[in-house]
C-alpha cells in the first residue's frame, strides 16, 4: 500500500487557543545535528530535505503541510537468528532510505476492529521494527521542537504505529511538535518469556517493551537531525501503549530518556506476569507448536502462521471475550520491570516524572456494543456474566449497586471498565503522589453517535480526536454519525490540554489551577468533551 505521505490538501489550522500558543521549552537542550531549512515549502516537486541519522540518510514526503519520514528502521530486523532476541541497533544503510508506509508486525484481527475498522498498513512482516517521523512546517524554534513519541494500543497483540489511524500531520502542526509513531513486536513474538540458559545466557523477556525503549534511544540519538529537542520528549500511549509507557517511564533501564508522559485508557488493573507462570505458558505454547525440546534452532524455524495460530488458541483458553489478565504480556523480569515498579503495584523505582493520566467514561462498551444478546440480559444473567469475568467479589459489587436508570448490561459493562481502567488509574496516581510525582487527571466524556446507541465514550474513542485526522478514521464504525463541527471542537480541546501539559509548568483550566493529585482521594478531574471543565471525581 502506498504511504499517505502525499500532497493531499488540508485546510490551514492554528494552534488551539484553549492552550495558549507560547512555548516555554522547559527542558530545551538547544542541540540538533543540523538545522533543516525549507520545511515550510510544499511546492509541487519540492520534497522535504533528506535527514542524516546515525544508521543512514532518510527521505521524506509532504502530507497535509507536514514532512513525513516513514518506516525508518530503529533496530535490526528481528528475523532468523534475531527472532526472540532483544532489539539491536540497526547496522545502517548506504544511499538514501525512502519508503512507503511501513509494514505492521504479524498479528491476528483484533476484537476492536468492530469499532475501529480494519487496520491498514504496508502489509505484515517480522521485519517491521520501524518508526515514522512527522515534522511540522517551518524552521524549528530556538532549542528545537518538542518531541512526542506515540505508543499504539492493541492489548499487546494487535495494532501498528504505521497504521493509517496514526498519520500525524495534523497533530504535528497543531502542537508545533515532532511526532514519532512506533511499531513494536506483539503477542508471542514480543512477549513470550524464556529463562536464562534456554535460548542463550540471558533471559528473554518483554521484547516488545524493549523495542519501545529502543525507539526512545533512537529518538535521543537522532531526533535533533529533524529539528527536534532530545531534551524535551513526551511519550504518549493509549491502552496497552499507555501501560507500556507507564512501565518504561518507571524502568531503571529507560526512564531517563523521556521527560513527561501521557497515559490514556491504560488497563492498570493488569499486573506483570510472574516469571514462573510466564515460563509455563511458553512451554505449553511450544508444545502446542510441536516443539517438545526448546532450542534456538527450533524456535527460529517456526513459521509465523504457526506462531499466530497457537497464540490465538492460547489466548482463547485463558479467558472470555476480554479479561483483566492475559497469559502473554509484560513479565516481572527484575530488569525492565521490577517488584517496586508502579505497574507492579509498587511505589515506583524513583521519583516519577510528570504524567497526564486519563480514561474514557464508558471504557468497556467497545467490546460488547454490537452483541444484541448481551444488551438483552436480565439482572441475574448479568450477575453471572460479571462473575465470569471478574470473580465473586465483582459480582457482589454488581449486586450491591443501583441501576440508576441503566440496564443490567450497561451496569455490568460500566463496572468492568471502572475496575480495570478507571479505579486502578486513580490508585496509580495516588501511589505516584506518595513519591511526590506530579500527576494530572482527565476523563474523556464525548460519546459516539453510532446508531446503536451503545458505544458511548468507549475504549479507543479518544484516539481520533487526539490525532484530528478524521479522514483516516472514515471506516471506523465508532465514528458513524459524527458531526464535523462537534468532532473538530472535541479534537481541539483534547489537543489543547495535551499541548498545555507539554508547554506549561502549571496548567490552568478557565483561569483555575488544574489540581495535581495529592495523597488521598482526588476530588476533581478534567472532563474533556467539546470543552474542558473541572468536575468531581465519580
The gist of it:
This protein is of the alpha/beta class. Helices cover 29% and strands 14% of the residues.
Describe the structure.
With 538 residues, the protein is of the alpha/beta class. It has one domain (51-271, 335-372, 404-503, 511-536): Alpha/Beta hydrolase fold, catalytic domain (Rossmann fold, 3-Layer(aba) Sandwich), CATH 3.40.50.1820. Helix content is 29%, strand content 14%. The protein is built from 13 helices and 16 strands. It has helices at residues 113-116, 169-175, 187-191, 207-222, 240-249, 275-288, 296-301, 304-318, 372-375, 379-399, 408-434, 463-467, 484-503; strands spanning 51-52, 57-58, 61-63, 66-73, 96-97, 130-135, 145-151, 178-182, 228-238, 260-264, 354-360, 439-444, 508-509, 512-513, 524-528, 532-536. The strands form three sheets. Strands 3-4-6-8-7-9-10-11-12-15-16 form an eleven-stranded mixed beta sheet, with helices on both faces. Helix 10 (379-399) packs parallel to helix 11 (408-434). The longest helix has 27 residues, at 408-434. The protein is globular, with a radius of gyration of 22 Å. The chain starts with 50 loop residues before the first strand and ends with a strand. Mean pLDDT is 89; it is low at 1-41 and 320-324.
**Which sequence of SSEs, written as H and E, runs from N to C?**
EEEEEHEEHEHHEHEHHHEHHHEHHEEEE
Report the sheet-strand fraction. 5-15%
Q: What number of structural domains do the residues give?
A: 1
* CATH third-level topology: Rossmann fold
**CATH hierarchy class name:** Alpha Beta
Sketch the major β-sheet: 11 strands, mixed
Q: What's the CATH architecture?
A: 3-Layer(aba) Sandwich
Q: Indicate the radius of gyration in whole angstroms.
A: 22 Å
What are the low-pLDDT stretches, counting only 5+ consecutive residues below 50?
1-41, 320-324
Q: From the helix content, strand content and strand pairing, which structural class follows?
A: alpha/beta
What is the CATH superfamily label?
A: Alpha/Beta hydrolase fold, catalytic domain
Mean pLDDT: 89
Task: List how many beta strands DSSP finds.
Answer: 16
